[in-house]
Amino acid sequence: MAVHVAPGTAVRFEPNLMRRKLAGTIFLGLCLLAVGALLLTLLVLLWDILSRGLPWLDAQFLTGAPSRRTERAGVLPALVGTIEIAVLVALITFPVGVAAAIYLEEYAKDSRLNRLLRTNIANLAGVPSIVYGIFGLALFVRGLGLGSTLIAGALTLSLLILPVLIIASMEALRAVPRAQREAAFALGASRWQVVRGSVLPAAAPGILTGIILAMARAIGETAPLILVGAVTFVTFLPNPVASGYTVLPIQIFQWAGDPRSDFQSLAAAAITVLLVLMVVLNALAILIRARLSRHLAW
Amino acid sequence: MTTASAPFARRTPVRERLVEAFLLLSAAIGVLTTVGIVVVLLIEAIEFFRLVPLVDYVTGTVWSASIKPFRFGALPLVTGTLLVAGLALTIAIPLGLASGIYLAEYASPRVRMVLKPVLELIAGIPTVVLGFFAINFVSPVLLKSLVPGIGGFSVLAGGIVVGILVTPLIASLSEDALRAVPRSLREGAVAMGATKFEVVRRIVFPAALSGIMASIILAMSRAVGETMAVVLAVGANPQLTVDVRESVQTMTAFIVQISLGDTPAGSIQFKALFAVGATLFLMTLALNLLSDRVVARFRNRY
Asked: How many CB atoms sit inside 10 A of residue A49's CB?
């Protein structure tokens, strides 16, 4: 037991119960104040964005391209770019991430190599996203010669998202009870048959939730895409293998950097679109979890 | 799943091994990424240090990457980064800890069910959105009325938005640490006549201290690596100062500035990008490892 009182801070007994209780009340008051401050911040943030952005959010904005004339500006190229990137990231990370999680949870023995793999993934999740951008610039854009294409951007974001997805999938696999595996082994199934036929279906809701939340994270990332060459002013729809694309966060970055009031409003409107996309993805994750896990109760 | 030919026929071991090999390969991508990041940063950073002596980089007090004469003393960038991160923690530690303690010790299950998603919501806000908040509200409305003579970009604005960003991290990680303290400890203290506050302060908080420290170190690492919010809030003015009303430039902001401009590959600015990236990587890696160490070293075993 390592609960101890540090030397020199011996607890002196305070006999006045009223005073002791008052100290508690004051402390709880401070805690509530902190929670209140957080909630207030969130409300101010949302109000600041919505009050500026909503009036600008119309069909013209959703179907138009960025323009110097703010009343005709829109986000279509950025919106399409964001959706394409999100889908590509999901397609790339899904097989690799789930396979890695299966290996680490179902196959890996407690060897030195496997411990290394595990700590490594935990540490990768802590690397700043801009460092992934530098890596993507060196590896995909220049090394593999992909140039500043949407594919290079998607690959870079995939590397960034992969640790998050692996950790989420590992948790989903770990939540499947041992008995489920043992029953399958007892029927003579090989390890892969156990995983494919028994463990994976049971872990599917958790894994799917993980991938959708990873997508939600990917569409909000900005910094790595600046490094791998997403451009700020794109008026055409992106072609995945040709240079020149943009995504919502980059478009927001460009408009937000312009101090003129109209551009600030454009940024707020684009943020609204981005937040709606993220809310939709999160709701989808909740829905899938509720749907698929209904008949999987243990 | 079964082969029809023989009743006890099993999948060939070859196939099982192939599957396992593919799975192992996927798991190894993490290590390959780490190695790749280190190699890429090192190669270009070494090139940079051929042109700019390491001593000048580490101890130089002037950073001028785009205006001649070029000077590459990293101290202004490093202090700018630490100043913003320090200010962010000054805001996030009390807010995050108090929220974490409230969630773990005081909140009813129903309140927690509402508050936790709200925290996750704040944690999930894209950082460029907080940058917009800085440029559109924090600097021109909040700070302009509170701090006389402050400009459009300041350490203060950056510290505030990064503080908002890392508060949920401290809150949820320290909540986890507090909830991991076993019931029996609390009950022992209550049985001896301690009030609720005394239990939290004298028993639960010290027992969870390692986890709380780890959450703060992780928040520091996040704040140091934070990019978009800082770029929009703090500006691009690399100077050696401790005045929080001033505009500075952080390491991440420099990297963004260089990649937004038309910097030709092979130029000294392009190489400086990798040197600064390597510095950033080393700092966050050190913080992450320290946080792991704190958890392992001071973990209370029950």
From this structure: 23
DSSP character string of chain A: ----PPTT-PPPP---HHHHHHHHHHHHHHHHHHHHHHHHHHHHHHHHHHHHHGGG-SHHHHH----SSGGG---HHHHHHHHHHHHHHHHHHHHHHHHHHHIIIII--S-HHHHHHHHHHHHHTTS-HHHHHHHHIIIIIIIS---SBHHHHHHHHHHHHHHHHHHHHHHHHHTS-HHHHHHHHHTT--HHHHIIIIIHHHHHHHHHHHHHHHHHHHHH--HHHHHTT--S---S---TTSB----HHHHHHHHHT--SHHHHHHHHHHHHHHHHHHHHHHHHHHHHHHHHTTT---
CB contact under 8 A, A139 and B280: no
Tokens of B34: 């780490």
CB A240 within 8 A of CB B118: no
Give the pTM.
0.88
Q: Do A130 and B197 touch (CB under 8 A)?
A: no
In terms of Cβ atoms closer than 10 Å to its own Cβ (0-12, 13-18, 19+), residue B227 is: buried
> Which one-letter amino acid corresponds to residue B1?
M
Per DSSP, what are the bridge partners of residue A149? A243
8 Å CB contact between A244 and A148: yes
- Select the residue of A107, A222, A256 nearest B20 (Cβ to Cβ): A107
Is A191 in CB contact (< 8 Å) with chain B?
yes
Positions of chain A with pLDDT lower than 70, given as ranges = 1-12, 232-233, 235-236, 239-241, 293-298
Phi, psi angle pair for A149, to nearest 5°: -100, 165
Grouped pLDDT means (10 residues each) for chain B, 302 residues: 47 79 89 92 91 88 82 90 95 96 93 88 91 91 84 90 95 92 91 91 91 93 93 88 87 90 81 93 93 77 58
The amino acid sitting at A65 is A
Residue B7's Cβ-count burial label (10 Å; 0-12, 13-18, 19+) is exposed
User: Which of A127, A139, A161, A274 to mutate to probe the B interface, most B CBs <10 Å?
Assistant: A127
Please check whether residue A26 is in contact with residue B199, taking contact to mean a CB–CB distance below 8 angstroms.
no
Q: What is the ipTM of this complex?
A: 0.89
Contact A80, A292 (CB under 8 A): no
- CA of A290 vs chain B CAs: smallest distance (Å): 17
Min Cα–Cα distance to chain B from A192, Å: 7
Measured between alpha carbons, how far is B284 from B226 in angstroms, rounded to an integer? 11
A103, B30 in Cβ contact below 8 A? no
A 202-221 residues inside an 8 A Cβ radius of B: 216-217, 219-221
Whether residue B132 lies within 8 A of chain A, CB to CB, comes out as yes
Q: Cβ–Cβ of B27/A104 closer than 8 Å?
A: yes
Say which amino acid occupies B24: L
Dihedral angle sign, alpha carbons of residues A14, A17, A23, A24? positive
Q: Residues 243 to 272 of A: which have CB under 8 A from any B CB?
A: 249, 252-253, 256-257, 259, 264, 267-268, 271
Phi-psi region of B198 (alpha: psi -120 to 50; beta: other; left: phi over 0): alpha
Which of A11, A100, A268 is closest, CB to CB, to B27?
A100
